[in-house]
Amino acid sequence: MNIFCIGQSAYDITVPIEGAIEENRKYRVLEYFECGGGPAFNAACLCGKWGANVELISRIGSDEYGKKLKETLQKYHVGTEYLIPCPGMKTPHSMIIAGKAKGSRTIFNFPGTREKTEYHIPEKKADVILSDGHEPEISLAMIAANPQAISVADAGTFRESTYKVAQKTDYLICSEDFARQYTGKGIHLEEWDICEEILRQIEQINGRHAVVTLGENGLLYRKKDGSLGHMPACQVKAVDSTGAGDIFHGAFAYGLTRKWNMEKNLIQSTCASGLSVQKIGGLTSIPEFEEVQKKCNKYKKRT
Question: What pTM was computed for the model?
Fold first, then answer.
């Protein structure tokens, strides 16, 4: 089974601090963490680390950050044959302030330069396609060229490009922000009728499966019997939530290659994401597969 992850790669520099950022204050940084990042990049690395056959379609420059990203991909056994050619590009990078008290993060993203380039869709068969919406034309072309593939949209915030890709995917997994931006409604679990209405509107985007992730409040999904379901998040002490969503989506894509049913796949994705927030960094917090399975067993007993 071949997984293709399509979208953004970036180089992350994470600085952990105590408390919230304040204006007109100097912070003395005693430690910081560097690693690869970006939704598609992190998801691909998780799949590679867990032993899946995975390819990344993304823009990575030939500068110093780009070289580090490519070295990381090799380390995680992610295929680089189909990277988008862009030799003159400055690789995107991010400065991330991680609030250790609550596990929050503030991201300053430097998107780098983009150049138009001709891209030929791989002839290699795709069984699962995961797109974060950052390369909409290529994502849509890949889905069209691989009608047998199961496609997943990682929708973090509402953008027209992400929306176009989401319409063509089998699974739309969106954040609470995306759901609010699209429907104009906030999600409050005590307002069950509104939660049902929001999920139904999200489902109408692709006419298939949809999930709304809620961070520390878990997620909303459609149960096998057609009713609205709520799956709670793992009970963990969060240190840094950077990359938690990427890891969730990567784990979900991996589960599709194992042909796991919806509930089992959401549980293992939830546990993978929950384990990740206990460590600093996005890529560096990808848990081991065996660690996730142990967490799943405890999770099932608790719920």
Answer: 0.92
